[in-house]
Design goal:
Helix 3 (54-61) packs across helix 9 (277-310) and helix 8 (186-203) runs parallel beside helix 9 (277-310). The chain is 28% helix and 17% strand. Strand 19 and strand 20 (487-488) form a beta hairpin. The chain folds into three domains: 1-30; 31-401, Alkaline Phosphatase, subunit A, CATH 3.40.720.10; 416-575, no CATH class. It has 16 helices and 22 strands. It is an alpha/beta fold. Bound molecules: 2-acetamido-2-deoxy-beta-D-glucopyranose (8 copies).
Length: 577
């Protein structure tokens, strides 16, 4: 009796004056969140660059959550960006380089992704989408309209060969012809453009996704140095004049892997000579120029957030800050650059603030750039796709996130060295072949490892718990006396190799839960589980990850065994199904 009265009463209220108010409330809570995504180019995490950007720290990191173990899956702009915007590992995009035939914008188009990638999906989900800055390499004066990049309500892209000219950026807006900004600093140009798109976005009733991708702190490149006959000259980034005087006393962190007295690393890295003082000084200067160049980005972020605060959308907007890949200067004796699987190159900053995200928190679970699109889908309430190789980051309280302890790191092709002393590489080369490798970075309960297999047969294993700077390669499979994690070292290596065998060709859920491929009964879900001695003989028998030779691209025929053994019971092992 009482209950029905209440129902009737609320029903009565619902048809009277409560209607508009309730509708309004509902519309507010239904409105999907906006996204402001800022991604720098080649910004390191490990060299401490984020410590020098106070606005990014105070207005994003401290106002939100820091994902302290966030990685890229390929440490090179174009492959990393295509993986990010498709949610797939590079072996599933086959966009593995910055230019054709293996990569670049034309390869991205040829693979069919221009019709089937994040901006298209998000527009279909009701979003207005905007992008300004660098989208990907080889989107150029001659390729930008063959066809135009799809899925954006507003776009204004940097075009090659002028992408990295700090004082002669060329942009291409929507379907208009390219326009040169000779004499203007690239960061001033993108600041104008991104504020313009933010204003457009704020005028519409629809939610928005705005991506802003400045070139800083990438090296400066002048056109003419980009042809294949003339090796690319990548020189120090150019700060805005108002930042030139900063950080005169700052030096690169002198970590144990900085210009080490003994050689470290594998392949070409292990052949580098010790740097002399002039080269070290040049590295410190290069670093300062990067920090100075980042100041413009710091101001840009400040301006964008201030504009959001002036609107009524700040509390309904996720603000994300990250980089497309990391960077090294001097670690393992390397001249400036990226492309390796070492910590400096694969770790990037990832800060996110927004509705429901706790302030000042640090999350240590592992995440990667292929988790970003699944994360944006989840935050926007869009159902996840089956072809995602990643899984949402644990942000929402009721998240479909599958926690994972592995990162699959892949690379095909050459390492390109940057800066005035780029040619201190092996034999005076600035472009070094034999930089094709695959690796697994594992961060689990009680272990912190990096295992790599290179195209020339080199292997690396680092125990980052005792060796966080990766200076002692402990890969010695023939050594039967050494132990790791309480097990003979070779038994641990057998597990890591079997995991990498799955990861090298994984797709969708097998990238997210790789141990299930080897142990379909789900009795093994982590390296720890797999280390049980009952599986020793089984893992011993697994085919080993290898390459036929060093190639610059992804040809299955070159990639060694593709199928491993599956554990059914103690007696019968069969190939994966
Ligand atoms: C953005 O593009 C989508 C897809 O073409 C369209 O439905 C939507 O109306 C556009 N938004 C604006 C503000 O024009
Ligand atoms: C700037 O870029 C344009 C192409 O957009 C080019 O035509 C021009 O020569 C460049 N100017 C300089 C000074 O390099
Ligand atoms: C990073 O930079 C900050 C700010 O200058 C400094 O306090 C800190 O010691 C630096 N950390 C390293 C590892 O160099
Ligand atoms: C460098 O190599 C020598 C000779 O192998 C070894 O004795 C020394 O401990 C190594 N130094 C470091 C810092 O690893
Ligand atoms: C330091 O090394 C560089 C690169 O090998 C070389 O060009 C330079 O002459 C060396 N400087 C000194 C003072 O030895
Ligand atoms: C590259 O690796 C091949 C083996 O695949 C080897 O023969 C060659 O010497 C290596 N080149 C360099 C520059 O290390
Ligand atoms: C195995 O490794 C241990 C520890 O690094 C070392 O002391 C030992 O000499 C090695 N044994 C062989 C046979 O190389
Ligand atoms: C990747 O692309 C290259 C170049 O187009 C092609 O030769 C190769 O077969 C492709 N690899 C796979 C696995 O599809």
């Amino acid at each position: 009796m009482k209950l029905s009265t209440v129902v009737a009463l609320s029903g009565l209220l619902a048809v009277s004056e409560a209607v508009p108010q309730q509708k309004l409330l509902q519309r507010q809570s239904d409105k999907k969140p906006n996204f402001l995504f800022v991604m720098t180019d080649d910004q390191d995490l490990q060299l401490n660059s984020t410590a020098y950007t106070p606005q990014i720290l105070s207005r994003i990191k401290e106002k939100g959550t820091d994902f302290a173990n966030h990685f890229v899956t390929t440490s090179l702009c174009c492959p990393s960006r295509v993986s990010l915007w498709t949610g797939r590992q590079a072996h599933n995009t086959n966009v593995t380089d910055v230019r054709p035939p293996w990569g670049g914008y034309p390869k991205f188009v040829a693979q069919g992704f221009n019709d089937d990638w994040f901006p298209v999906w998000f527009q279909n989900a009701g979003y207005n989408t905007y992008y300004t800055g660098k989208l990907m390499n080889a989107q150029s004066l001659s390729t930008y309209n063959k066809p135009f990049a799809k899925g954006f309500n507003g776009s204004d892209f940097l075009l090659d060969p002028h992408t990295y000219s700090y004082y002669n950026a060329t942009y291409q807006r929507n379907h208009e012809p390219p326009k040169s900004y000779a004499g203007q600093h690239t960061t001033d140009v993108i600041a104008d453009k991104s504020l313009g798109f933010l204003n457009d976005a704020l005028e519409s009733d629809r939610p928005f996704f705005l991506a802003v991708s400045p070139v800083a702190p990438h090296s400066n490149i002048e056109p003419g140095s980009m042809s294949s006959s003339d090796p690319t000259r990548m020189t120090e980034p150019i700060p805005l004049p108002r930042h030139q005087h900063l950080f005169q006393d700052v030096k690169l962190p002198r970590t144990p892997n900085f210009n080490p007295l003994n050689n470290t690393g594998a392949s070409w890295v292990s052949k580098l000579a010790l740097q002399n003082q002039s080269v070290v000084d040049a590295g410190d200067h290069f670093y300062r120029q990067r920090l100075r160049a980042l100041q413009g980005v710091d101001e840009l972020v400040d301006a964008l957030i201030t504009r959001l605060e002036e609107s009524d959308e700040i509390d309904n907007t996720y603000i994300i800050f990250t980089s497309d890949n990391g960077f090294h200067i001097g670690q393992h004796r390397m001249p400036p650059g990226k492309t390796t699987g070492y910590e400096e190159d694969i770790r990037v900053p990832f800060f996110i603030r927004g509705p429901g995200i706790p302030e000042g928190q640090t999350v240590t679970s592992v995440s990667t750039h292929i988790d970003l699109v699944p994360t944006f889908f989840e935050l926007a309430g869009v159902p996840l796709r089956d072809d995602f190789d990643g899984t949402p980051m644990p942000i929402k309280r009721k998240s479909a996130a599958v926690s994972h302890e592995h990162v699959t790191v892949e690379f095909w092709g050459s390492a390109v060295l940057e800066g005035d002393f780029a040619a201190i590489g092996v034999d005076g080369q600035t472009k070094l072949g034999n930089n094709t490798y695959k690796s697994a970075r594992i961060l689990g309960e009680g272990y912190n490892l990096y295992y790599s297999v290179w195209c020339n047969g080199d292997h690396e294993l680092y125990d980052l718990t005792s060796d966080p700077y990766q200076t002692h390669n402990i890969y010695t499979p023939a050594n039967t006396t050494t132990h790791l994690l309480g097990r003979p070292l070779h038994d641990v290596i057998n597990r890591l190799d079997a995991l990498l065998l799955v990861l090298q060709s994984c797709k969708g859920t097998t990238c997210i839960q790789p141990w299930k491929v080897i142990h379909p009964d789900e009795s093994v879900q982590s390296l720890r589980d797999a280390l049980t001695s009952q599986y020793d003989a089984f893992y011993q028998r697994q085919p080993k990850v290898s390459y036929e030779q060093c190639l610059d691209g992804y040809l299955i025929s070159n990639e060694g065994p593709q199928v491993g053994l599956q554990y059914r019971d103690g007696l019968s092992w069969s190939a994966w199904v």
